[in-house]
Amino acid sequence: MTDLNPPRGQRTAAGVGRVVASLAAVLLLASPSRALDPRRAITQYSRTLWQTEQGLPQNTVRAIAQTPDGFLWFGTQSGLVRFDGVRFTVFTRRDTPALINHHVYSLAAADDGTLWVGTNGGGLVRLKDGIFKLYGEREGLPAGRVTALLPVAGALWIGTYGGGLCRLRDGERLSVVDRRRGLSHDVVLSLAPDGDGGLWIGTFGGGLNHRAADGTIRVFGPEEGLADDVVWALEPAPDGGLWIGTNRGLQRLRDGVFTTYRTADGLADDGVLSLVVDGDRNLWVGTYGGGLQRFRDGVFSRLDERRTGASDTVWALFEDREGSLWVGTVGGGLMQLRDGVFTTFGRDEGLPSELVNTLAGDGGGLWIGTRNRGLVRLEGDRVRTYATADGLPHDGVWSLLVAADGSLWLGTNGGLARFAGGRFTTFGDRHPLLGEEVFCLEQGSDGSIWAGTNRGLVRLRDDRVAVFTEADGLAGDQIRALYEDRRGTLWIGAVGGLSRLRAASGDASRPAFDRFTRDDGLASDYVWSIYEDRQGGLWLATLGGGVTRYAGGRFTSLSSAQGLADDDVQAIVEDGAGNLWLGSGRGISRIARSELEVYLKGLASRVRPMTFDRRDGLKRAACDGGEPAVWQAPGGELWFATVGGAARVDPAHLEIAPAPPVILESVRVDGEPLERRAAPPGVPAGSRSFLFRFTAPTLRAPHKIRFRYRLAGFDDGWVMDGGQRLARYANLRPGAYRFEVMASDEAGVFAGAPTTFAFRVEKPFYRRWGVVAAAVAGALGLLYGLHHLRVARLERRERELARRAQDAAAHLRLLRGLLPICAECRKVRDEEGSWIHLETFLDQHSGASLSHGLCPQCAVDLVRSSGEVSLAEVRDAIERDAGD
User: Fold this and answer.
1) Potential cystine with 708: which of 310, 489, 613, 718 (Cβ 3.0-4.6 Å)?
2) Matching fold, domains 20-339 and 345-653
3) Is 108 left (phi over 0), alpha (psi -120 to 50) or beta?
4) pLDDT tens-digit series, residues 514-525
5) How far apart are CA 39 and CA 763, in angstroms?
6) Taking all residues of the chain, what is their mean pLDDT, rounded to a whole number?
7) Which residues have C-beta within 8 Å of that of residue 692, sequence separation ≥ 6?
């Protein structure tokens, strides 16, 4: 079997990475509402790279598609992958029997939500409503390797390796178009619609085919102007033409005429594997060995893969509905390009260094002071650098000031300098301090130039120099910030606190300073920047204490304890709408004016900043430089000095996307899935664990989305998700419950209705009414039966006793009557006429027995009548009888 990966130097071997036709299907589904800003250099887009370390099952991505629910799908050699912006879910043959081969070549999403999956030898797989279905040779598919997919008008066009082209209608009927039916080659690599009901077909070795709506096929090869007969990619052009990626360059076909672009025209490599036209009509080109390029206004620009960490072979290109560009590479993983909130200027844009300390603007451009590469002038796309060779006293520039006369003052590691008329003037000869490190500058309303150094404050006025130190009342000698407010008062920030110039009565007298420290309410004694807001309040950026506002003689502080991203703040400014922007070591934050006002009035204990980092266009998030570290342009744009370059943001055009809809992915009870039905499902009593998984597919800024949830019937309020996008509960009592979950927008604001899932935990069987009623009835029946049995036994006992009583009564009547007794032997005649001893009769009829003895009189008579018995013997016999 021929491999579709073309080896270097052997382009005529076949290959397909992503079939661009799958892109066309998605564009038909829903064109992106926005695209990458074409005004930015290709290097200025925010880039994110995903590889196996970030969750991809394998670093070669062949195909990309997006379903209407917002999920992005990737085809890899190790499975089908679903992505919500944060988590990857992988489907393989181990858990998805329909994927008998999980090497995915091609993908396409239909407008009804169906995802079509083309595999390497495993046929075609349909995913609809969560169910995978396989279409193989048994269902009529002519070959098991599916290399191209294109949904059109309710049908699906399928390009195969070796079986030609086929069309699937109604999800069941397959018809084949192959060489026997006019196709030039049976290996189909790419598909695209022609806009008139026809189809463009790119083949491996058979050139370009056009199948008209009536079924007739026309073939374009080298004789007709096609650069090569291997056509990897096809993409409809916005003007009605067709872009073609071949082994020998990029071509455009319009009105039957081919225009060819090769390396001599700026193409990075002649092997073009993938193409996509974005929402702003720019053409993106993925090449074999030349990486990613953008073609705009006849000019190619390239993204160097050495800067991105990705591969230089690009199989797949796709633009999602939020305007991001996705790049699938061979061995280099997956890359996303998107418009960041910030546009950053660094080495790629011509700066000699990305370690920017300070910046300041004038009417014609921007001045940038770097930490070790001198002074930079940026005017549009033009960059000019000034260094010590040009007269700069030192290449480390810490502070910049555009004076009222238009000249530029610089504080450097080598002292104070002034740039005017194209030349530098230094001031180290005026005073030793002006030849040392100068960290901040300010111009007073009287024209004085103030300079902050490590050994005090310097005033330069009319060529006269004055130095002020801690001995004069300053809070410290290491001066880091200078600011003159609207009232003409000079404020000095230092290592040691804040100082205010109270009065200046002339050159001959020493000015007085007011001093403020933590004891007076400052959050920190390290004051790094000072800014006055529109209400006249003074904001102080500090190290270790966040920010402090001074107004009406009162200090109010705001730190990480109240929601700031960092307590080390080095830049502070207010935008045109009154929102506060802060630059710190952890990025740049924005606090909405409305939220800030509520906090300052004491009506809230926290703020919710919107923080921006590398994912938002900053090459490096940290602001760690000099003064000023932020400059506001006349048009309202803000420029920040960062360790990753000069970063620009336009607050007036800051787009905050609404909260995405939440999808409840699964509900599991004791590890088993619980299906969602129209009626709330019942959960067996005694269930111990409940797991809810949820997500909100969004691809522009998923890291800014927050979730909160609650279980009505259990939780008293909302619970913030910790980033895992799941909720766990245990041992719920019987009753009705409703799980609710909602996502925030990019600013962290929750609005709208939550996604809900209702269910009930059943009562134990012994607590159910029917069971209880049956048990009570059974118990009553048992009691009745026992009672009935006892009554019967008592009645039988009663009859037995009555019988015995009758017998006894009969015996008693017999004893009470006249008994015939013999006068001689004393025998008694019973009721049967027999004569028996009196003792026996009494024993049978009364239970009494007789004992024999002598009464005293008989005993005396016996002694008298017989001489053989002594009187003593008679006495003993009488006593024994008495004892008995």
Assistant:
1) 718
2) yes
3) beta
4) 999 999 999 999
5) 64
6) 86
7) 664, 666, 667, 709, 726, 727, 728, 739, 741, 757
CATH of 20-339 among 1.10.10.10, 3.40.5.10, 2.130.10.10, 3.60.160.10: 2.130.10.10
Q: Which residues, 6 or more positions from 393, have their beta carbon under 8 angstroms from its beta carbon?
A: 412, 414, 415, 417, 424, 426, 428, 435
- Taking each continuous run of H as one helix and of E as one strand, the counts in the chain are 7, 67
pLDDT at residue 863 in the model? 54
Q: Residue 149 in 3-state DSSP?
A: strand
Give domain 345-653's CATH superfamily: YVTN repeat-like/Quinoprotein amine dehydrogenase (2.130.10.10)
Stretches where the chain sits below pLDDT 70 are 1-33, 503-510, 677-678, 765-776, 784, 802, 805-819, 823-824, 826, 830-832, 838, 841-884
pLDDT at 308: 76
How far apart, in whole angstroms, are the C-alpha atoms of residue 327 and residue 62? 10
* pLDDT (tens digit per residue) in 589-601: 999 999 999 999 9
- The Cα 540–Cα 519 span in angstroms is 16
Q: Where are the domains of the chain?
A: 20-339, 345-653, 670-762, 764-817
Q: Residue holding tokens 């509960």?
A: 729
- CA gap 263, 270 in Å, rounded: 6
Measure CA 244 to chain center: 38
What is the chain's Cα-based Rg?
50
Q: Which two tokens stand for residue 122?
A: 């495993």
pTM of the model: 0.79
Instruction: With CA atoms as reference, report the closest residue to 633 among 365, 817, 294.
Output: 365
Give the pLDDT score at 835.
Answer: 75
Burial 690-704 (b: 16+ CB within 10 A, else e): bbbebbbbbbbbbeb
Give 626's DSSP letter: -
pLDDT score of 554:
92
| CATH number for the domain running over 670-762 | 2.60.40.10
Mind giving me the DSSP string for 460-491?
EETTEEEEE-GGGT-S-SSEEEEEE-TTS-EE
Instruction: For strands 682-683 and 755-761, give the pairing.
Output: parallel
Give the residue among 707, 749, 747, 751 at the shortest CA–CA distance from 612: 747
What does the chain come to in residues? 884
